[in-house]
């Protein structure tokens, strides 16, 4: 089995330099780092996780708490995180946070306290006060991404402005009969920072700015099918809207499906705008607020690595960008 000494000889450096190059820590030139990694690859040398942890006090592993593993958005964010961690020798352990109280207790009481991770990234989950306290007491850095709790430092999109901008686009097209199709605010969030509340707030603000003081809001589930069923009710009712602002692209797909089933022309009779920048948005010709989820994941990865002092990584800005992308699902009211 190849040892660190052989890698050092092949690269013409000391064993200490090999250790720094392969761990991603310590000040080395990129040329030296690349030479050491190339020598290690040629010799088939792999750093022992156990030995590395003993020597450095680090597990070379980042824990990521995620609410839904089967959603496109979170899968894309995770890919962005991995794109930052993997080149620097860090693995990623996923912790799926469910609604089951026993599962949650096991995660916070046991799993996160086993010293198997060097840092934790929390993705858009609603936490109880006790869970937030336990996170704060962990002996490792914690970075949030879209987390609806002010006391957890991290990265956020201005979802109030997202909701306002999506609504403003429809208002600028002459629509006034606009419905916001959102989802139910999670229980236990009392600071108004959760994503549903913020997007709804932006919608209400934009409508109020247009003189509409009692805007229409409808709740639905997060899935395409649940949004489709709710949209059918809205579009066949006595006060069918001329535009719908859906709080996610997947919900917008449900609206488009309902419109097609009912023979409603989009955008001739109904304009639809979503949020996220889903991979299929262009295929569906959907106007959306692009949130760049892969880039969000990359920034979260950079943020946790910067907290760990990894060489060459700087902390990103806490405010995440977004952009209105106009396609063929919105048009002026006729």
In brief:
This protein is of the alpha/beta class and 334 residues long. It has helices spanning 4-11, 15-23, 30-43, 49-56, 72-85, 101-109, 129-136, 159-172, 195-209, 224-236, 249-262, 293-307, and strands spanning 61-66, 91-96, 119-123, 142-145, 154-157, 178-182, 216-219, 243-246, 271-276, 287-290, 319-320, 323-325.
Helix run count = 12
- Alpha carbon gyration radius: 24 Å
Class inferred from helices and paired strands? alpha/beta
What series of H and E elements makes up the topology?
Answer: HHHHEHEHEHEEHEHEHEHEEHEE
Mean pLDDT across all amino acids: 87
Helicity, as a percent range: 40-55%
Shape: elongated
Low-confidence stretches: 49-56
Beginning-to-end CA distance, first to last residue:
74 Å
* Sheet with most strands: strand arrangement: 2-1-3-4-5-11
- Beta-strand share of residues: 15-25%
Biggest sheet record: 6 strands, parallel
DSSP strand count: 12
């Amino acid at each position: 089995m190849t040892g660190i000494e052989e890698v050092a000889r092949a690269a013409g450096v000391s064993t200490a330099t090999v250790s720094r190059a392969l761990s991603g820590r310590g000040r080395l030139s990129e040329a030296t780092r690349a030479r050491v990694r190339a020598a290690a690859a040629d010799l088939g040398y792999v750093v022992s996780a156990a030995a590395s942890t003993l020597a450095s006090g680090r597990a070379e592993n980042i824990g990521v708490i995620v609410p839904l593993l089967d959603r496109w958005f979170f899968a894309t964010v995770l890919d962005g995180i991995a794109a930052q961690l993997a080149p620097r020798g860090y693995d990623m352990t996923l912790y799926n946070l469910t609604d089951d109280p026993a599962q949650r207790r096991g995660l916070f009481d046991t799993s996160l306290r086993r010293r198997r991770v060097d840092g934790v990234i929390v993705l858009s989950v609603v936490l109880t006060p006790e869970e937030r306290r336990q996170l704060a007491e962990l002996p490792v850095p914690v970075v949030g991404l879209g987390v609806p709790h002010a006391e957890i430092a991290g990265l956020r999109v201005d979802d109030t402005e997202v909701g306002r901008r999506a609504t403003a686009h429809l208002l600028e097209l002459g629509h006034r009969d606009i419905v916001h199709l959102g989802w139910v605010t999670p229980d236990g969030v009392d600071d108004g920072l959760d994503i549903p509340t913020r997007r709804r707030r932006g919608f209400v603000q934009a409508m109020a700015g247009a003189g509409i003081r009692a805007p229409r809001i409808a709740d639905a589930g997060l899935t395409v099918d649940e949004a489709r069923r709710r949209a059918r009710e809205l579009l066949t009712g006595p006060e069918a809207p001329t535009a719908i602002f859906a709080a996610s692209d997947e919900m917008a797909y449900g609206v488009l499906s309902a419109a097609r089933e009912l023979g409603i022309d989009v955008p001739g009779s109904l304009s639809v705008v979503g949020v996220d920048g889903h991979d299929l948005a262009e295929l569906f010709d959907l106007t959306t607020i692009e949130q760049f989820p892969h880039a969000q994941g990359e920034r979260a990865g950079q943020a946790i690595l910067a907290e760990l002092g990894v060489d060459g990584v700087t902390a990103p800005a806490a405010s995440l960008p977004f952009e209105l992308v106009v396609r063929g699902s919105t048009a002026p009211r006729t």
